[in-house]
Design a protein that fits this description.
Elements (H helix, E strand, L loop, with lengths): L1 H13 L6 H12 L6 E6 L20 E6 L2 E10 L2 E9 L7 E5 L4 E4 L6 E7 L2 E8 L6 E3 L2 E3 L2
Parallel strand pairs: 1-9
Antiparallel strand pairs: 1-2, 2-3, 3-4, 4-7, 5-6, 5-8, 8-9, 8-10
């Protein structure tokens, strides 16, 4: 059995057994989703204020709320699926400034919003599935969240 894997690896390495086109197309599509020069925002726990409802007794934030942080920014992202469509709302803090824009993207669609003066943004009508948020600020590298899988 191991010999079969070795022979298959040698054939691929020699170019005799090319990578299937579907695999290559998926790799190219994934590469196109990167944010060149961007700063990845890592996940941060969202504390729940005392007395507020939470998704569990452990005091965690509601299920659709996630927080990310990097480069001096905090990006809160809340996702819901309504009527088969994904809705994304959130806030960037501190507010990113006058010429900032928020890009809410899926693998197939990206929608850009100008955040309010307090850093709030919202997008509706996206397909359920994978979503990421990017904050673009003049004079700063873009800050992006990891991909979140949202399903009905």
């Amino acid at each position: 059995m191991r010999e079969e894997y070795l022979l298959a690896a040698l054939r691929m390495g020699a170019g005799a057994d090319p990578v299937p086109e579907g695999v290559s197309a998926s790799a190219r599509a994934a590469f196109g989703l990167r944010v060149p020069g961007g700063v990845p925002a890592g996940p941060v726990d969202v504390p729940v204020p005392p007395g507020a409802r939470s998704s569990s007794e452990a005091g965690t934030a509601p299920a659709g709320l996630r927080r990310f942080s990097a480069d001096g920014l905090v990006i809160d992202v809340e996702t819901t699926v309504t009527g088969g469509h994904l809705e994304v709302a959130g806030q960037v803090s501190p507010a990113p400034g006058q010429d900032a824009r928020i890009e809410v993207r899926t693998p197939h669609i990206a929608k850009v919003r100008v955040p309010s003066g307090s850093g709030h943004f919202a997008v509706a009508g996206l397909p359920p599935g994978w979503v990421s948020v990017v904050c673009h600020r003049p004079g700063h590298p873009p800050v992006f969240t990891r991909w979140i899988h949202v399903y009905p």
